[in-house]
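BUG: 3D viewer hangs when loading the predicted structure for this chain

Environment: internal workstation, default settings.
Expected: structure renders.
Actual: progress bar stalls at 90%.

Input used:
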Amino acid sequence: MQLLVVGATGGTGLQIIEQALQRGHFVTAFVRDPAKLPVKHPNLTVETGDVLKPQTLLHAVRRQDVVICALGSRPGQHDEAVADGTKNLIAAMRQAGVRRLLVVSSLGVGTSYEEASLPSKLVIKTLLSGVIAEKEKQEHAIHTSKLDWVIVRPTRLTNGPLTGKIRLGEHLPFPRFSIPKISRADVAAFLLDQLDNDQYLGKAVTITGK
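Structure tokens produced before the viewer hung:
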């Protein structure tokens, strides 16, 4: 498939690119600074642009089969690029006629907050409050986009290896005092499994490691 990865230089974005190339897909990485992308491959195309500049997105979106959005912001930072950039991405997809959108969100967005453990809720309400607020706006834009979307809400992300051992669901309660986590590699693998799988289409699923 032809895949566009937005947020390509982040930890999860890099995992998505590397695993997609390993699976034989053709990948376009949308980046602001190509120097920050360490991956080189014959099937990798690098598009330079900014999600806050819609005209740069349209060229990258054209002729893609699937768009994967891994936009994120760091704790303590307010980054409007997550929500506004996603809105621009949705508009570009509509204009280009690309329908499938896979998105990395976060535990704590929507109904997943109520199901989070006490330690997770504390972090969400303090350190991650700005991040979650942006993700809420991002998810709202996706829900109303009329695209074919899947939203993935991972628990605490790590740089651990690909294990293939995950738990997921639209409603995924956790033990009261647990600190759930999942590797970026496992999140990337799950997303790539959704390229042509309709099981979770139109759903937001929480995902964590076992």
